[in-house]
Amino acid sequence: MYSEKVIDHFNNPRNVGEIPDANGVGQVGNAKCGDIMRISVLVENDVIQDIKFKTFGCGAAVATSSMVTEMVKGKTVQEAMSVTNKAVAEALGGLPGEKLHCSNLAADAVHAALNDYTEKKMRV
Amino acid sequence: MYKLSDNHPDQSKQTGVVRQANSVGVGQTAEVHQAGRASHASHTSQASHTSHASQIGPANHTGAAGRRVYLDNSATTPQDYRVTEAMMAFMTETYGNPSSVHQFGRVARTAVEKARGQVADLIGATPEEIVFLSGGTEANNLAIQGVAHARANKGHHLITTAIEHHAVLDVMEDLAKNGYELTVLPVDSEGLVSVAEVQAAIRPDTILISVMHANNEIGSIQPIAEIGTLARENGVLFHVDAVQSLGKLPISVIDMNIDMLSVSGHKIYGPKGIGALYIRKGVKIKPMTLGGGQERNIRPGTENVAGIIGFGEACRLAAEGMGGAFAVELLRDKLLNGIVERISDVVVNGPLGDKRMPNNVNVSIKFVEGESLLLSLDMQGIAASSGSACTSGSLDPSHVLMAIGLPHEIAHGSLRLTLGKQTTEEDVDYVLEKLPPIVERLRAMSPLCDCAASQH
Ligand SMILES: Cc1ncc(COP(=O)(O)O)c(C=O)c1O
Ligand code: FES
């Protein structure tokens, strides 16, 4: 049911964990099945220097989290904000239809972390 | 034969048993457990099988597949090789239609009637009370719709429970949309129905009570005999879905006052696509299909002869092997206790003790999600199932886990392991070795806990 890429990211997820000195954190929940994803970012000079995730969800949720961190690492905030859920699913070689909603979580969590970063920056 | 006492941690690796049951492609119902993974390290088989294991599937399958452990026997069971042998002739030279007058037909008829007797014997019925059909789903549909329509002049009230299989619940709910009234009884936190609540639900216009014998997810065993007495006293028909309990628990349709009983071949080492409905003599039901008069016109259509023969043989073998349930229960206890001892924050779903099916393990492993667990186990060759929302097409958690009051996040981490007669102690040891690191890995990824410390 899952592509080899999905299985690979599930088995060897990139960037798992939490950044202790993160300057942006986003957590989103999946209204549909109750899964949760948390992303922390370290942004310096508008570039995502480091990003880590923690995910409670299915294989597709773990794989999309892993994939999205790879896709935005080293990118500018603006570039990362334009990464879509669809792009993440495509980068994984597609997801089974009933698993498409899981990929929503990944890009949303990144956007939430970056919004958190931007808000914090505006406050200082 | 394998040694029961040998618990050396590396034993399973060294003996490298290639499970024959798996080489014949045991049921692939859950999407996540897949056939042969080349990535598994291959071991030389030293052919250490239990006598049971060697009865399932052809011998000498020493292929390159790694260890594969099938613990999804409530989804389906491997077919016993003796069942296959019994069926063989009816898929080749003995092809007559049982309804035909000629010798070809008569041979088939005799075999079908023998099988009918074998099914009847296992539940204490007479052969004339057995109607063959396509499986548990059809048996449940026919029983419930058949009675609802045949007794519509007597009343419109139906009673069932919240933890029935969908093949009961969905039929009941459909009738409720079409003029019938439905009472769905709750269950307690162990998944048990209260006899007093059944009694309280019975009304003058109640025509049918349907309660499953054993639950397929959490293994809870319902007080069928008590409910049967109650139904009989009140003149209400009683249907029992015994798909999970057949051959594992004693069933007597007489002693338990059962009017209709659904059973299925593929849960008892028989073929898929064959089952039966017991209908007590004198009980009228309206057929769902009309046609050529077979099966006393209750389920017309040319018989699935090979399937029927296989089902009959599976019933005979089940009656013979009933004593083996104790061995399975010991292994189950080892597995269940082992999981609880090795992994922290585990909740056991369903009752413990004699109200639980001897082959069922169902636990919720907190802070992890079921589908991730199944995928990870599958990669180690272990086939299991889960009631997590993520494993269901509808993305709702299992209705059974909801009915016993589990919060969504606990239902999410549910893991069902169901043993079979082919399960060995080595299988159990292998799971106990592989599961804890899988849980540890997934917990380290989970935002719900600071899990590095919680593992012991
Ligand atoms: C309790 C119960 N009832 C009914 C069924 C359906 O049986 P079948 O697969 O033979 O249609 C199953 C099998 O999943 C079951 O576990
Ligand atoms: S996260 Fe629940 S289905 Fe993917």
Could you please describe the fold and organization of this structure?
The complex is a heterodimer of chains A (124) and B (456). With 124 residues, chain A is an alpha+beta fold. Chain A has one domain (4-123): Sufe protein. Chain: A (Alpha-Beta Complex), CATH 3.90.1010.10. Chain A has 5 helices and 3 strands, in the order H-E-E-E-H-H-H-H. In chain A, 47% of the residues are buried. Chain B is an alpha/beta fold. Chain B has 2 domains: 13-79 and 323-444, Aspartate Aminotransferase, domain 1 (Alpha-Beta Complex); 82-321, Aspartate Aminotransferase, domain 2, CATH 3.40.640. Chain B has 15 helices and 12 strands. In chain B, strands 2-8-7-6-5-3-4 form a 7-stranded mixed β-sheet, sandwiched between helices. In chain B, strand 5, helix 9 (224-233) and strand 6 (237-241) form a beta-alpha-beta unit. In chain B, helix 4 packs antiparallel against helix 10 (305-321), helix 6 packs parallel to helix 7 (166-176) and helix 12 (370-379) crosses helix 15 (425-444). The radius of gyration of chain B is 23 Å and the shape is globular. The two termini of chain B are 33 Å apart. At the A-B interface, helix 1, strand 2, strand 3 and helix 2 of A face helix 12 and helix 14 of B. Residues 30, 33, 35, 57-58, 60-61, 99, 102 of chain A line the site of FE2/S2 (inorganic) cluster.
Helix and strand topology:
The complex is a heterodimer of chains A (124) and B (456).
Chain A: H1 4-11, E1 24-29, E2 36-44, E3 47-56, H2 59-72, H3 77-81, H4 85-91, H5 100-123
Antiparallel strand pairs in A: 1-2, 2-3
Helix pairs in contact in A: 1-2, 2-5, 4-5
Chain B: H1 11-15, H2 20-23, H3 51-54, E1 69-70, H4 81-88, H5 103-123, E2 130-133, H6 136-150, E3 157-161, H7 166-176, E4 181-185, H8 195-201, E5 206-210, H9 224-233, E6 237-241, E7 260-264, E8 275-279, H10 305-321, H11 325-342, E9 346-348, E10 360-365, H12 370-379, E11 382-383, H13 399-403, H14 408-412, E12 414-418, H15 425-444
Parallel strand pairs in B: 1-11, 3-4, 3-5, 5-6, 6-7
Antiparallel strand pairs in B: 2-8, 7-8, 9-10, 10-12
